[in-house]
């Protein structure tokens, strides 16, 4: 038996002013999209902004439902919308931000497991990495160069083909 570590890498920024203009814009849009969230149950509002290779920015916000788990996370709203409305485009970057009515979210938020798997599916499908930008509504920001860094032990269609 041996222990194995799976390292991931990300870049940490102290605040939004350290980002490139394009990344800053995506974070600002994701933060604004938190205002469109329908989150009466969790009061945890999430926004997402996806930059496509054609320059379009597709947005999403979480949408909750009393018939849990019928709601949908912001990341999946944005990626599904991007794929449905721009099927030939490649997703380059997704920015994800969150806020909460009861506290300041000054730390980066990370996607749930289902969102990680969905984003990985698109990254695998397009054979190009999708950069991931994680933020709260202020404070530090993390940038990962690919979705796979969020889900290092992946399960993809390629894995199914090997079965």
Tell me the count of domains.
1
**CATH-defined topology:** Cytidine Deaminase, domain 2
CATH class assignment: Alpha Beta
Structural class: alpha+beta
Approximate shape: globular
CATH architecture: 3-Layer(aba) Sandwich
Unreliable residue stretches = none
Q: If you average the pLDDT, what whole number results? A: 93
Task: State the main characteristics.
six-stranded mixed sheet; 163 residues; Cytidine Deaminase, domain 2
List the helices and strands and how they pair.
Blueprint: E1 11-13, H1 21-33, E2 44-52, E3 57-61, H2 74-85, E4 91-100, H3 113-126, E5 131-135, E6 141-144, H4 157-162
Parallel strand pairs: 4-5
Antiparallel strand pairs: 1-6, 2-3, 2-4, 5-6
Descriptive report:
By secondary structure, this protein is an alpha+beta fold. It has one domain: Cytidine Deaminase, domain 2 (3-Layer(aba) Sandwich), CATH 3.40.140. The protein has four helices and six strands. The protein has helices at 21-33, 74-85, 113-126, 157-162, and strands at 11-13, 44-52, 57-61, 91-100, 131-135, 141-144. A six-stranded mixed sheet has the order 1-6-5-4-2-3. The radius of gyration is 16 Å and the shape is globular. The two termini are 25 Å apart.
């Amino acid at each position: 038996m041996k222990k194995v570590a799976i390292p991931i890498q990300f870049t940490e920024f102290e605040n939004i002013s350290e980002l490139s203009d394009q990344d800053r814009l995506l974070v600002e849009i994701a933060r604004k999209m938190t205002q469109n969230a329908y989150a009466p149950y969790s009061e945890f509002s999430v926004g997402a902004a996806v930059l496509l290779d054609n320059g379009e920015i597709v947005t999403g916000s979480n949408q909750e439902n009393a018939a849990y788990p019928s709601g949908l996370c912001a990341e999946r709203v944005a990626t599904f919308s991007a794929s449905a409305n721009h099927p030939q485009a490649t997703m380059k970057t997704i920015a994800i931000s969150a806020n909460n009515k009861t506290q300041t979210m000054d730390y980066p938020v990370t996607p749930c497991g289902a969102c990680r798997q969905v984003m990985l599916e698109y990254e695998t499908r397009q054979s190009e990495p999708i950069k991931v930008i994680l933020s709260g509504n202020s404070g530090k920001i993390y940038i990962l160069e690919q979705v796979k860094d969020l889900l290092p032990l992946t399960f993809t269609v390629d894995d199914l083909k090997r079965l």
